[in-house]
């Protein structure tokens, strides 16, 4: 973002960019204020400069606007915008609550917690307001990680030019409220984006069950988890799904093909077939000797491989050693606990996910309320704000099956994981509240229908 701003400032004045940013904030603030009095809180930096522009535009639009400041801008574009504000300015310590609050105290670049006084004052003003809007970021969020430095929970945040990591990670998920995006004519090129609805090709007239992709789901200690993954692969568009396990009479849809395997050698023989398009192992795998043997057979296969659940725990800190020599595409789908057992790193969730990618050579789908996908080419996708009702047993198994289906259909790397994550989140929204993972599968096909 800094590089993008510097490139723009070589072509035009920073004043003009700040004027666009502040005007964009004013448009949103006026929309939410609906004629009510507005309090604009301005800091001493560029975020404060945007706040003064916002206040001026709101006042010119006929709204009752007051400004509370935490120090005056000393120089540059922010100081110029302060001088253009013709209304009164009071100290933050003298501010009185108003129905609409615009938070322009601090934006990007925070490196330490807010001081206790300003933190408490801002929190009280936000709480007292009917609606609060933050400029770029709520004051008190660390930009690159979303760590909480004392930020209040606002109603909405207007991101300027591009989303920042704090909008989609960690404390930012709750503190930012509804995240809006303003185009202020700053082109931003990045390998990191929000996950988007995929565009998936429907089957063609000449397609058949094998051309659409055959998925093998491996069943072991807890058969229900593997069945969920297998059913999800079917709902995710795979043409043929085989559940490889010890009991060929187990439950599941009639269209699910069941193959009996007694030992790892049986699985290895099954996975020699060139008709197989992807394999998923880990849901319900267990952590016993037989589980380890099945995992080794899967790792040795030449097919795209999705590793989930117990498979990740069995790999642990040895994941890099086991996976670096694999030539076929590989995906890891850890939740926070499984990730910690595999990799210890520092930095934001994005940084740590990229670290595991570097360690293993696999695409990593790091699950959670802020799901981070990272690929070997450095590409990152983040999906934030998925249904909190996904926090129930079996939903991760469904995601693994959806991912195996996308791999079987020919998607690779980040693209396959992004498609699976979007389908998963959309199925959850269609399922409504308090669903079981089985119901999530039932809605996955409808989600897929929105993408073809």
Task: Give your account of this protein's structure.
Strand 15 and strand 16 form a beta hairpin. The radius of gyration is 26 Å and the shape is elongated. The strands form two sheets. A ten-stranded mixed beta sheet has the order 8-17-16-15-14-13-12-9-10-11, with helices on both faces. The chain has a seven-stranded parallel beta sheet with strand order 3-2-1-4-5-6-7, sandwiched between helices. The chain has 452 residues and is α/β, with parallel strands linked by helices. It has 17 helices and 17 strands. The longest helix has 20 residues. The two termini are 34 Å apart.
Secondary-structure blueprint:
Blueprint: H1 2-9, H2 14-33, E1 38-42, H3 46-60, E2 65-69, H4 76-84, E3 89-91, E4 100-104, H5 116-128, E5 131-135, E6 156-160, H6 165-168, H7 172-175, E7 178-182, E8 192-194, E9 214-218, H8 223-235, E10 240-245, E11 257-260, H9 264-270, E12 276-281, H10 289-299, E13 305-307, H11 310-315, H12 319-323, E14 330-332, H13 336-342, H14 349-360, E15 363-366, E16 370-374, E17 380-384, H15 395-408, H16 413-431, H17 437-449
Parallel strand pairs: 1-2, 1-4, 2-3, 4-5, 5-6, 6-7, 8-17, 9-10, 9-12, 10-11, 12-13, 13-14, 14-15
Antiparallel strand pairs: 15-16, 16-17
Helix pairs in contact: 2-3, 2-4, 3-4, 8-15, 8-17, 9-10, 15-16, 15-17, 16-17
Could you estimate the helical fraction of the residues in percent?
25-40%
Number of helices: 17
For the biggest β-sheet, the strand order reads 8-17-16-15-14-13-12-9-10-11
Low-confidence stretches: none
Radius of gyration using CA atoms only = 26 Å
Distance between the termini: 34 Å
Number of strands: 17
Largest sheet: 10 strands, mixed
Shape: elongated
Average pLDDT: 95
Beta-strand residue percentage: 15-25%
Secondary-structure content class: alpha/beta
């Amino acid at each position: 973002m800094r590089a993008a701003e510097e490139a723009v400032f070589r072509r035009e004045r920073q004043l003009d960019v700040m004027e666009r940013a502040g005007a964009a904030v004013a448009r949103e603030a006026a929309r939410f204020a609906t004629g009510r009095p507005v309090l604009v809180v301005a800091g001493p930096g560029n975020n404060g400069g945007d706040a003064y522009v916002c206040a001026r535009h709101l006042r010119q639009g006929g709204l009752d606007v007051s400004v509370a400041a935490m120090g005056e801008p000393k120089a540059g574009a922010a100081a110029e915008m302060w001088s253009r504000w013709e209304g009164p300015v009071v100290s933050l310590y003298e501010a009185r609550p108003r129905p609409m609050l615009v938070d322009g105290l601090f934006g990007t670049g925070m490196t330490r917690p807010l001081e206790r006084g300003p933190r408490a004052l801002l929190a009280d003003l936000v709480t007292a307001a009917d609606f609060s809007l933050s400029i770029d970021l709520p004051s008190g969020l660390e930009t690159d990680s979303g760590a909480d430095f004392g930020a209040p929970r606002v109603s909405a945040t207007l991101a300027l030019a591009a989303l920042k990591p704090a909008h989609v990670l960690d404390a930012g998920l709750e503190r930012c409220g509804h995240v809006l995006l303003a185009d202020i004519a700053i082109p931003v090129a990045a390998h990191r984006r929000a996950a988007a609805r995929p565009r998936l090709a429907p089957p063609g007239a000449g397609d058949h069950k094998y051309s659409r992709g055959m998925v093998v789901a491996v069943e072991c200690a807890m058969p229900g988890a593997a069945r969920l993954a297998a059913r999800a692969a079917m709902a995710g568009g795979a043409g043929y799904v085989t559940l490889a396990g010890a009991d060929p009479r187990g439950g599941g849809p009639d269209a699910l093909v069941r193959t009996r395997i007694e030992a790892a050698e049986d699985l290895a023989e099954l996975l020699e077939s060139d008709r197989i398009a992807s394999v998923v192992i880990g849901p319900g795998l267990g952590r016993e000797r037989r589980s380890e043997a099945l995992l080794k057979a899967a790792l040795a296969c030449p097919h795209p491989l999705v590793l989930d659940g117990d498979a990740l725990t069995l790999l642990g800190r040895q994941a890099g050693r086991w996976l670096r020599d694999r030539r076929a595409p590989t995906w890891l789908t850890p939740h926070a606990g499984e990730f910690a057992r595999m990799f210890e790193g520092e930095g934001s969730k994005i940084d740590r996910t990229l670290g595991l990618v570097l360690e293993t050579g696999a695409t990593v789908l790091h699950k959670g309320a802020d799901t981070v996908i990272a690929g070997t080419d450095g590409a990152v996708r983040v999906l934030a704000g998925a249904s909190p009702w996904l926090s129930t047993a079996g939903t991760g198994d469904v995601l693994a099956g959806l991912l195996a289906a996308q791999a079987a259909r020919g998607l690779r790397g980040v693209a396959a994981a992004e498609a699976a994550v979007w389908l998963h989140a959309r199925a959850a929204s269609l399922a409504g509240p308090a669903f079981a993972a089985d119901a999530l599968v039932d809605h996955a096909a409808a989600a897929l229908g929105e993408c073809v």
